[in-house]
Structure formats: C-alpha cells, structure tokens
Specification:
heterotrimer; A mainly alpha; B alpha/beta; C mainly alpha; A: MetI-like fold; about 70% helix; globular; C: mainly alpha; MetI-like fold; sn-glycerol-3-phosphate transport system permease protein UgpA (chain C); transmembrane (chain C)
C-alpha cells in the first residue's frame, strides 16, 4: 500500500497557505486605519479598528448620493443571488420538463435555440444587450439586473440530464393513476429532484452573487448596487486624490465574499455534487 | 363595456387634472454628473441651493460613475428617449457629443431663448472657447474646469536649496540637487493631458489639422512636431537618470509618492488643491506649468480640462427654461466662488474671479490662484482647445505608447509614429460615424 | 399547448436577451455609427480589417493567448498535484478539501482587489518580497509585472474548480484498479503516469475547455480591477477590449466587430466541448 509521506502533507499545507493567506491578509488589513496602511503597507496582524471599519462599511451612508451603505448592498446582493438562483431553477426545470417528457413539433428547434445561449456569453454581446435592456426601460431595476442573466442553458441541460435518468416506469405509473402532466411534475418530479435542486441552487446563488460585468453596466443607481458591483466604486475613490481607504475597501471585499463562501463551506457536499454534475 | 368606458374617461380626466396641477408645481429637471466623493457633495449643495433659491424648477443631480460611464449612460438614455436635461461630459468626450448634431441645444441658445443674457466675454480666457463650435458659439457650459499646474514640497526645495522652476531648462538645473537631497525630483499624473494637450497649448503649437479639429472631423489629423518629441526624449532621459518618477497611468499612483514626501514636485490638476491640503503633512505650494524657453513663442496659457454641462435636446420648452435658469444660477459669481473654494476648480467667469480676489481669498491661499492665473496668461492661435472624436481611445493610445516609452519598450520616434497612425485612423473612423 | 407554455419563459428570455442582441452585434459590426444614433455609414468589412490590422489588437490577442495558456496550465497543474495528494491523505482529508476549495466562492473582482492589495506599488507585501530578490516590481508601469500579477490572481481563483473535478475524478477510479496498479508497479510516480493519469484524461480535457473559457471571459473582473479603469500600457484581454471600445470609447462598430470574432471563437470551443462530452460518456 501507498505510504503517506511528510512531503505530501507539506505540499497540501503549501497549497492551503497559498489559498488562505491572501484572504487572511485582506482581513487583517481591514482591521486597521487607512493612514497606518498607507504608511506601513499591508498589515499582517489584527488591528484595533475592526468594529469601526465594519460598522462604517455596513451602516454609514456613503457613496455620492448618501443613500447607499454596505447593508443596502448586502440586501441587493441577496436579491440578485436568490432571484437569479430561483428564477433560473424554475425556468430551466419547466423547459427541461417540456423537452424531456413531451413530443411536439419544433421540439428540436426549441432545444437548439436554448442551446445557442451557450454560444453567446454575456461578454460577447454586452453592448447590444445593454441597449436592448435600456430600450425596454429596465436599466436600474431588479428585473433588468436578474432576468437577462437567467436564460442561459446550463440549468436546462442539467435538469434535462437528470430527468432523462428518471425511470420511465414512474411516468407510466402516473399515467395509470390518471395524473396529468402538472400533477406528475409537482408530485413526482419535483420531489425526486430535491437534492439536485439544492445542489444547483448553491452553484447558481454563488454565480449570481458574484456577477460583476452586468451589474456594472445595468445599475448606475447606487441604491441598486450589489457588494461586488461596489468594488468598482472603491476603485474610483482610489483614482481620485485622497488617501485610498484600503481598510474599508478590504472590509467590503470580506463582506462580499463571506456569504457565498459560507454557503459553499456549509453545504459542501451539495455544492460539489452540483458542480461536478452540472458541468458535465 | 359602459362601465369600462366610464372608468377610462375617469382615468383620462384624472390624468388631465394631474397635468394641470403639475403646471403649478415645480418643473423637474435631471442632471447626470460624474462628480464622486467630496465633489459629489458639493454638487448636491449646488442643487439644493438652486432649489431653495426659486420655486419654478426643481433639479435632481444623479451620480452616474466615471466620466466615461456617465457619457455612455447619457448616450444610451438618449437613444432610448430617456435622456436627462443636463449631462456632464468631460473634455475627451466633447467631440462625441458636439459632433452629434441635434443631440444637444447649445448653452448659448438655451440661455438666449430663455431671455437670460449671454456674453461669451464674461467667461475667463482659457475657458471661453473650449466647448464652443468653430464659430465661437458656446455649446457646453463649462462646469468643473481645471488646468495642470506644478505643486512642490516647500521643505524639499529648501533642503536642496533651489527654487521652483519656471522653465524645463531651469528644471534640468535644479533636478540633480533635489535628487542629491534624497527626492525623486518630479512626477506627473496624466501624460496625455499635461505633457501632450497642454504642452501644445503652453508652447502655442498646433495639435491637429482643421484648426485643432474645430473646423470639422473630416480629414483631421494629429500634428506632432519636434518640440514635443524633444520633450519626451528629455523626460525619458530624466526618468533614466532618476530625475523623474513614472508610476503608471493611474492618477493616484503618481500623486501618492508626492503626498508621501518622496517626490519633490508633482504636476497635477489645479483641482487637486483641496485634496492635497487635507492629506500632506508638509508645507506645499504651487506654480505654473513649466515650458521650454527654447521653443519659440512658448509661455502661452494653458486650456482647461475637466467637464462641461450639456443641455440635451428633445425636452419641453418649460424644462429648457429651467435648464437656462439653472445655468444662470450656476454661473453666478457667488456659486462659482463657492465651487472654486470648496473644490479647487477654477471659477469660470471673470466676475467670480474678481469676487474671490476682492474677498482676499488668494492672499490667504495664494496657491489657489495659480490655475486661474495660468489660464488667463496671454493666449495664441493654438491655445483655445482641441476637438477630436474618439478622443478617449486616442488618449488610451497615448497612454499605451508613453507607457511603453517609459518602460523602454519603444523609442520616442516609434511611439509618436504609432500615436499618429492609430490616432489618425481613429479620427478617420470617427468622421465616418457622422456620415462624412 | 402545454410544452410550449412550459418553454415560453425560457424561449422568450433567450430571444430577447440573447438572440436579438447577438443579431444586433452582427449587424452593427458592418456599420460605423454615431453613438447618439443620428447617423451611420455602411462600411462593409472595414471594422474587421481596421481591427485586425491595428497594432494593438494583435498585442491584445497575443496577451490573451499567453494569459490563457498560463492560467489554464498552471491552475490545472497545481490543482492536479493537490488533488492527487488530497486523495491519498486520510487524516484531515475533509479539512484539506474544504480549505482548498472555498476560494471558488470568491468573485473575480474581489480576487482582483486582493491582488491589487498584495501587488500594489506602494503598500503591497509581494512587492517587498520580490524586492529582496532584486525584482523591482511595478504593477501598472511594467507590462510584464502587471501580466504576472493578473496571472497569479487568475490562477488562484481557478485552482479550486479544477481541484474539485480532479478529486472527484480520482475518487471515481475504483480502489481495485489502484491496488492492482500498486502491485504491478512499485514506483508511485510511474504508477501515476501510466495508470491514474490516463483515467483522469477525460476530466482533464473537459477541464481544459472550462479553463480556456474562464481565462477568456470570466477573468473580466480581475482584469478590470487590476488595471484600475486605465488601460494605459497594461495587458488586457480580448473581452476587456470589447468593453473598452464599446463602453469607454463609444465605438459601436469596432466593439461589435470584436464581439463577432469572439462569438466565432466560442462557437469553436463549444463544438469541441460537445465532442468531448460525447467521449466522456464513453469513458464513464
């Protein structure tokens, strides 16, 4: 049998250090005051400004309209994360259900239209997408933020794959019982998919939460900023002439990563399942 | 059905009622701007001041991000028919908005149509024609206007036993002494703005054909002669000799070492004044942007950077009247003086400048006057500004090539050849967008 | 009617927010348009030739290729190494696993912000560290240094995904195969290359595509934050250039032409990906 060597642990520990240290430094830096960082560089030890900095970032109305604070951004990130994950799951389950369990004309056309979304990541169609959302009057709205993001095919493929693995006997049994398509979906398919739904929910929540480019374009109204979108605002302050508020910037960075990281760590097994299965 | 009709007519009546009452209420106008941080707060103060000053109109300022983001948002909104009444557009975007005939109502027209008097001679020299068309008609109302000046660390210069330089020749003499004293003698924060556009103005040199681009976008090309190439050769030499610091394209990255006391002199915006005085713990002062004495006719004034307010078209007369009355308020000496004091941007009218002088502001803070004095230095043929399309990208090309030059990836000749080639291609593309 | 009703929401969104903009991008790539919409000129393929002949586009494309190469192979390599080791440890296995994968949840711009902090010219500790070895690092000034910081940040962010896939791939290799292998060949290193690695190959190929896509598109946030709004002489990716020309420069035609090129690239990548998935099904 293979003997575990010290070197194996050393490699793993180095890997862990590489992954963790930057965030630890970020956190340490976020507990100092701006002048200390400005003069002394990144901080390796905890400072005494933890409460102060996080309170400022979370509750002090900042920005330029004096309307937005970290708490509002946290709320918006939550809305985006949940809205995106739930919307995507509902829409893609419905679509996958239609594709797998119904025979109808143009089925393959519909499938290919959905498939085409894989060919068109947001980044290659940003400018016209922005214009269209603008012309629909959806700029600076939650729906403009969420809806255009939820249509990509990944979720649909995922559920399609899963539904195809559901044994046909179940459908037969439901037919014999006289259950309609809706009843079959609601009473059999959805309960069966519970774990899958949970897994994909986590992936999609993290994905939605971490969106940057789209929110940057579509929300210019500060009261709609998400935490990740707020990063852009931090940079603008740096470009200006005052002392860069590294402490508050890093506090915001910590806040922006905390919820998705917690979810991934707590629901680790679902998360891994969702990731490995959905990307197949 | 009858029921439905009743409801419909009721709704219509209510809507009518709504509009008629609205005419008694204030007319709302929107102002999209790019003023972040402290500047944004002053913008809000101005808007509040205007709203309190009269009852007919109510202005709402909305922050839209960086200059680039604000312009893009304004353009997209215009295409969707949801443009604000006033859009703040920065110097590099001026050609885009002015070139789009019909997108804006010239500031001069909006003021005259509303019966508010307008005389372009009321505005200070460096500001007057920057946002005007080739006939000298003011299109954009200059708003935050600044100009590049030289800030210096008084202690550093004292330690080295030197005076702040008036010319680059003088700088070359004193720089080694500053280096000996342990300082990086000089840094700057915006190579295209300070060492290109304003270099042209300070030396009264042509920047582009077609009257620096004012006479139309077709066949406009960049003009780079020996003086600017010599200047960049000198700058590169200073960099290699440790007499000049280059910290990248970012504004703050270059200002930081000056604030920290590592760099003795820094070329920045006259609008940086307020920020520096809050940050640094050494005495500092400011003087004019140096020029090369060797260049014939050098020493002329600079022109402004910053941004102007444009009145968007497609709005009702009522709203346009409000825009005019807001412009009138904004350019009043009191507001301009307040803006000048709070932000460090220059006052745009002679009356406001006089008011600041009379108030004794420059006796207590002489450095605050450097910018405006530099703008009112005698001008020349090429000191009123420039007008070029896709100028944001042209600046990016300059930054790229200058960056390469500073890190030794290219030579001065090649850098300018590339800037001319890429820049002229962009100008040609721009002239096609408007159908030429 | 039922299936159409079920498909309607997705099809509607796809049509409005995917197909329509894509068609518009293709159309405007043949025009030069005044940003305000007052005038536009049909210019045929000018936007494409202008773009492909410009010095800058070639430079950006080259950087994107180099960036993609390093990000893909470094993050795959490190992740594979860590996964192989993590697959073997028994004690603390789940702790290692958690600590090595949580960075998945960090948003790219947040990763970029951390990168900016660590590599900052004035306050960054990495700059001090490298200075001890005589490397005077200047992000934002030196093209190479900025590229280095971008690649390190992008690799850091991408290791967890690869790690998770490799680890689950390894754990899918049955224990009996591994035991048989350990009897047949004594050297652990050889055993890895002759037995384990080929069995992981389908996962690896699949991850290759995922990583290329990541380096192309998902690193937008990292690039944007590290260049701090000012492209200057900094390295940027093709996607970032689409954004710069479209949103910063308001050059609709030029930006659209670049989008069309990228669409073609994604098209090719997706076809390869689907070919691979078919193969992958064969393997499993």
């Amino acid at each position: 049998m293979y003997k575990l060597k010290i070197s194996d642990h050393l490699i793993l520990l180095t890997g862990v250090f590489f992954m963790v240290a930057p965030v630890v430094l970020t956190f340490m830096t976020s507990t100092h005051d701006a002048i200390a960082i400005y003069k002394g560089g990144v901080q390796f030890l905890p400072g005494d400004k933890f409460l102060e900095n996080y309170e400022t970032v979370l509750f002090q109305a900042g920005g330029f309209t004096q309307e937005v604070n970290g708490f509002v951004m946290l709320k918006n990130s939550m809305i985006l994360g949940f809205g995106f994950a739930i919307g995507k799951i509902v829409i893609s389950m419905l679509a996958a259900y239609a594709i797998v369990y119904f025979r109808f004309p143009f089925a393959s056309v519909c499938f290919w239209i959905i498939f085409a979304t894989l060919l068109l990541p947001l980044e290659v169609r940003i400018l016209p997408s922005y214009e269209i959302v603008q012309s629909l009057g959806m700029v600076n709205t939650y729906s403009g933020l969420i809806v255009p993001l939820i249509a990509s095919a990944t979720g649909t493929f995922f559920f399609r794959q899963f539904f195809m693995s559901v044994p046909d006997e179940l459908l037969e049994a439901a037919r014999i019982d006289g259950a309609g398509p809706w009843k079959f979906f609601k009473d059999i398919l959805v309960p069966l998919s519970k774990t899958m739904i949970a897994a994909i929910f986590i992936i999609m929540f993290v994905f939605g939460w971490n969106q940057y480019l789209w929110p940057t374009l579509i929300t210019t109204d500060e009261s709609l900023f998400t935490l990740v979108r707020g990063i852009k605002q931090i940079l603008q302050v740096w470009v200006g002439a005052q002392i860069p508020a590294f402490n508050e910037a890093m506090a915001l960075a910590i806040l922006a990563m905390l919820p998705p990281v917690l979810i991934v760590v707590i629901f680790q097994s679902w998360f891994v399942k969702g990731l490995v299965e959905s990307d197949k | 059905m009858a029921y439905r009709k009743t409801v419909a007519s009721f709704v219509a009546a209510a809507a009518l009622l709504g509009t008629s009452t609205a005419s008694y209420a204030a007319t709302d106008i929107a102002w999209w701007h790019a003023m972040g941080g402290r500047l944004g707060e002053v913008v809000v103060d101005i808007a509040n001041g205007y709203n309190a000053d009269q009852d007919a109109c109510k202005i709402t300022p909305v922050f839209k991000g960086t200059y680039e983001e604000t312009l893009t948002a304004g353009i997209a909104a215009f295409r969707a028919g949801e443009q604000p009444n006033i859009l703040q557009v920065f110097d590099a975007g001026a050609a885009t908005i002015i070139g789009a005939k019909g997108a804006v109502i010239p500031a001069q027209d909006i003021l005259e149509n509303a019966g508010v008097g307008f005389d372009i001679e009321d505005y200070i020299d460096g500001v007057r024609y920057f946002y005007a068309d080739s006939d000298g008609k003011m299109i954009g109302m200059p708003f935050n206007s600044s100009t590049p000046i030289l800030y210096y660390n008084v202690d550093a210069l004292k330690k080295a036993g030197v005076e702040a330089p008036k010319t680059w020749e003088e700088f070359q003499e004193i720089a080694p002494k500053l280096k000996e004293a342990g300082y990086v003698p000089l840094a700057q924060s915006h190579l295209p703005w300070i060492f290109t556009e304003n270099f042209k103005s300070r030396h009264n040199l042509q920047f582009a054909t077609n009257n620096n681009g004012y006479d139309g976008s077709k066949d406009t090309t960049l003009v780079f002669g020996e003086p600017i190439k010599n200047h960049f050769s000198a700058v590169k030499g200073w960099l290699d000799d440790g007499l000049f610091g280059y910290y990248g394209t970012g504004w703050g990255d270059n200002q930081t070492p000056f604030n920290e006391g590592k760099v003795a002199m820094w070329l920045g915006s006259s609008g940086s004044f307020g920020g520096i005085s809050k940050t640094v713990d050494f005495p500092f002062s400011a003087t004019y942007l140096p020029y090369w004495d060797a260049v014939d006719g050098a020493g002329t004034g600079t022109f402004i950077g910053g941004a102007a307010l444009f009145s968007m078209s497609g709005k009702s007369d009522e709203e346009n009247k409000c825009v005019a009355s807001f412009f009138e308020y904004l350019t009043s000496p009191e507001v301009q003086y307040m803006w000048h004091k709070e932000t460090g941007y220059v006052p745009i009218t002679n009356a406001a400048y006089d008011m600041a002088k009379k108030d004794g502001y420059y006796e207590s803070t002489p450095a605050a006057e450097v910018g405006i004095k530099q703008l009112t230095l005698p001008g020349g043929e090429w000191t009123k500004g420039y007008r070029m399309g896709f100028y944001v990208q042209i600046r990016d090309v300059m930054n790229r090539e200058y960056g390469k030059l500073m890190s030794g990836e290219t030579t001065v000749e090649d850098a300018f050849a590339t800037i001319e080639a890429d820049g002229n291609k962009l100008l040609e593309r721009f002239s096609k967008t408007t159908g030429n | 009617m039922v299936p159409y009703m079920l498909l309607l929401p997705q099809l509607a969104i796809v049509t409005i927010f995917f197909l329509w903009p894509a068609a518009e991008a293709i159309q405007s790539s043949f025009y030069l348009e005044d940003p305000f919409g007052f005038g536009s000129t049909f210019v045929g393929l000018d936007n494409f030739t202008d773009m492909l002949t410009s010095t800058d586009y070639g430079r950006v494309a080259r950087f994107t290729a180099v960036f993609t190469f390093f990000v893909t192979f470094l993050s795959l390599g490190f992740a594979l190494l860590l996964a192989v080791k993590a697959d073997k440890v028994l004690r603390g296995a789940s702790t290692y696993k958690t600590l090595l994968m949580w960075v998945y949840a960090v948003a790219p711009p947040v990763a970029g912000l951390i990168g900016v902090l660590l590599f900052d010219q004035h306050v960054g500790p990495m700059v001090d560290l490298f200075a001890m070895f005589g490397w005077k690092m200047q992000i934002g000034v030196n093209y190479f240094d900025t590229s280095f910081a971008m690649i390190v940040t992008a690799v850091w962010k991408q290791i967890p995904v690869n790690f998770i896939f490799f680890l689950s791939g390894l754990q899918g290799i049955s224990k009996s195969v591994q035991e048989a292998a350990s009897i047949d060949c004594r050297s652990g290193f050889r055993r890895f290359w002759t037995v384990t690695f080929p069995l992981l190959a389908p996962t690896g190929f699949f991850l290759l595509i995922i990583n290329i896509t990541y380096a192309f598109f998902d690193t937008f946030g990292i690039v944007d934050v590290i260049v701090k709004n000012e492209p200057g002489n900094n390295p940027v990716t093709l996607v970032y250039k689409v954004y710069l020309d479209g949103f910063r420069g308001n050059d609709l035609g030029g930006s659209s032409a670049q989008s069309v090129i990228l669409m073609a690239l994604v098209f090719i990548l997706t076809i390869i990906q689907f070919r691979l998935i078919e193969r992958r099904v064969h393997y499993t």
